[in-house]
Amino acid sequence: MTKRFALLAALAVSSLAAQDWAIAKLAKSPRHQEWVTVKHDGRSVETFIVYPESAAKTPVVVIIHEIFGMTDWVQDLADQVAEAGYIAAAPDLLSGMAPNGGRTKDFAPNTVMEAIGHLSPDQITADLNAVADYGLKLPAANGKLFVAGFCWGGGQTFRFATNRPDLKAAFVFYGPPPAADAMPRIQAPVYGFYAGNDARIGATIPAAKEQMAAAHRQYDPAVYEGAGHGFMRAGEDPAGNEGNQKARADAWVRWKQLLKERSQ
Q1: CB neighbour list of residue 27: distance below 8 Å, 6 or more residues apart
Q2: 96-105 contacts: CB < 8 A, separation 24 or more?
Q3: Which residues of the chain register pLDDT less than 50?
Q4: Is 79 exposed, middle or buried (0-12, 13-18, 19+ CB in 10 A)?
């Protein structure tokens, strides 16, 4: 393990250990939450589902977790998406990959990121397709599908848009774009949410804009100045700094508005 990877792993452990605030919020939620097992092609994908309190059928939002795997914060976010009026479906893409066939919670904390790095792109796509299909078949779903992802999941969201033609929109939170030659396959508008203090990902935006324009595809990125990578999680943390908190609040307003518009 390199020194850099060891440092990232240590930061991940710290991040995961500091999410009691997310657990507390989930415990207070009035919404129905459940874990379901989505099966396909010999795999079982453990998926966290949260339903909105709605008399009408609603769209489905597939949520793709960070490189830290299925954390308490991801479940907290899924609950907030349901609070906004949507069925949230958040798969643990490390399902079956931990020792003895477990998922994220069954890994040693400093091995989660490495395990995610070894996931097959084809397996990820198949898992996401299976979860999306499951969500759309729920009796409470209205047939409209969205996807949103964060960090590593943001990149997977952009890539999933190249493989899922029935998406109403894709919401990429500080994730890299797919290969330029895959962009013409995108059918849905892609909305980006990026941090001003994140040059690694920010440097990908200009080329992505050019490549999406060349493919005649809609790509609308927004950059939140003063925020760092991971601001949707860090900005929700009570210990988060002001820049991340403001970016998180502003991005949440934009995201909900776009969801509303694209659900029409």
Answers
A1: none
A2: 96/43, 96/44, 96/45, 103/46, 103/69, 103/70, 104/65, 104/69, 104/70, 104/71, 105/70
A3: 1-17
A4: buried
**Is the distance from CB of 99 to CB of 122 less than 8 angstroms?**
no
Amino acid at 242: E
Any idea which residue has 């047939």 for tokens?
143
**Which residue from 205, 181, 179, 206 is spatially nearest to 192, judged by alpha carbons?**
205
pLDDT at res. 8:
41
Q: What torsion, rounded to 10 degrees, do the Cα atoms 80, 85, 87, 93 define?
A: -30
Q: What is the pLDDT of residue 17?
A: 47
Tell me the one-letter amino acid at 147: V
How open is the CA angle 198-19-225, to the nearest 5 degrees? 25
How many Cβ atoms from other residues are within 10 Å of residue 165's Cβ? Answer: 10
Among residues 37, 13, 33, 11, which one has the least CA distance to residue 23?
33
Q: How high is the pLDDT of residue 18?
A: 54
Report how far residue 96's alpha carbon sits from residue 44's, in angstroms, rounded to the nearest whole number.
7
In b/e form, how buried is each residue of 105-142, taking b as 16+ CB within 10 angstroms?
bebebeebbebbeeeeeeebbbbbebbbebbbebeebb
What tokens were used for 215?
Answer: 């493919």
In this predicted model, what pLDDT tens digit does every residue of 87-120 receive, in sequence order? 999 999 999 999 999 999 999 989 999 999 999 9
Distance in angstroms (rounded) separating the CA atoms of residues 109 and 107: 6
Q: Measured between alpha carbons, how far is 234 from 247 in angstroms, rounded to an integer?
A: 10
Is residue 189 helix, strand or coil? coil
Query: Contact, 249 vs 223, CB < 8 A?
Result: no
What is the residue type of 168? K
